[in-house]
Write a structure and sequence with these properties.
alpha+beta, two-stranded antiparallel ribbon, 9 strands, DNA-binding
Length: about 300
DNA sequence: TTGCAGGGGTCAA
DNA sequence: TTGACCCCTGCA
């Protein structure tokens, strides 16, 4: 079995159980998965990354400018992964636009293979509610526990993995069961938000059509969702590119690099980001975050 | 071995 | 604006 297609500038080929996308630039698996936007991946010792997303398991490998997606086919590439990896966006061009001053130049160079993923909105919302007052390894553990407890099994290579729980699955879950996944005081937030959404729905298009500030404001009506969580959920599901999530790392690096170590309010940081990075402030935030965290700046 | 400090967003007062 | 919330890691 061998078939091929064209997607934008990419030649895409399917063979056996994998898909090869040719001519992929600005795509580094470490940068993409380890920059804090995704939680359900494993760095395999053979250089591949295993990803659990969209009710599927895939393995990814980058060989030169070839991106290889194992355990997949052209249909899934078309329906899911092309959008998920935001392959229609020209990151080479976008980086040139952003890197017009020395600080951002450095951050972009450091994380040059980053792409912002367009992940499932519901999954992002719950994941970032869990992220509040929490560290990345702990967030990943809690999410895995929740998937194992409430999600449907997916089988791959004789191993059992679990899909991210649906709205209904979490809405019907007992708060104490959620707490048993080490979600702590966030358990009530997750339960209440799941029940709210199960009743009223969660439509990405509704938020996409709103002005960004308004979208954040609407998101904050959900329990456990403040500025940071709302911004992250909108950014990492590809709904808004012009949000600027501010956590302690971003606050530190912004103060250190742009405010000469002076005390600065989040409101000022946000305003600065909007003025300097404009429409691209979401991706700018991601370069800065990765740069700050990996280099322990601040 | 135990115990304590540190880390980190949102809510409610 | 401030304290409480939870749980893991690192270190004494």
């Amino acid at each position: 079995m061998f078939s091929r297609m064209k997607y934008f500038n990419y030649d895409v080929e399917e063979k056996d159980t994998y898909v090869t996308v040719k001519g992929v630039t600005t795509f580094d698996l470490k940068h993409i998965f380890e920059c804090g936007q995704a939680f359900r991946w494993q760095n395999k010792d053979n250089g591949r990354y295993l990803l659990i997303a969209m009710n599927r398991i895939i393995e990814l490998e980058k060989k030169g400018q070839d991106l290889i997606i194992y355990n997949s086919n052209l249909e899934d590439f078309n329906d899911i992964w092309a959008r998920y990896f935001d392959l229609e966006t020209d990151y080479d061009n976008l980086k040139k636009t952003l890197a017009n001053e020395p600080i951002m130049s450095k951050a972009v160079e450091f994380g040059k293979g980053i792409r912002i993923l367009k992940q499932d909105f519901w999954e992002m919302l719950v994941s970032f509610i869990i992220s509040a007052n929490n560290r990345i390894p702990m967030i990943m553990k809690t999410i895995e526990n929740m998937c194992r407890t409430f999600g449907k099994p997916i089988y791959y290579n004789q191993k059992e993995y679990y899909a991210f729980p649906t709205v209904e699955e979490l809405a019907n879950a007992d708060v104490e069961q959620i707490r048993a996944c080490s979600a702590g005081y966030r358990s009530e937030y997750i339960s209440e938000t799941a029940q709210n959404i199960n009743k009223n729905g969660l439509d990405p298009d509704f938020f996409a059509k709103l002005k960004t500030d308004q979208a954040v404001k609407e998101m904050k009506k959900l329990k456990g969702v403040g500025d940071k969580v709302a911004s992250c959920a909108l950014l990492f599901s590809g709904i808004k590119k012009d949000v600027f999530p501010i956590d302690v790392w971003i606050e530190r690096i912004m103060r250190c690099l742009y405010f000469e170590e002076k005390e600065v309010k989040n409101k000022e940081i946000k305003q600065f980001a909007n003025e300097h990075f404009g429409e691209l402030c979401g991706i700018a935030q991601q370069y800065l975050f990765y740069y700050a965290r990996e280099n322990k700046i601040g």
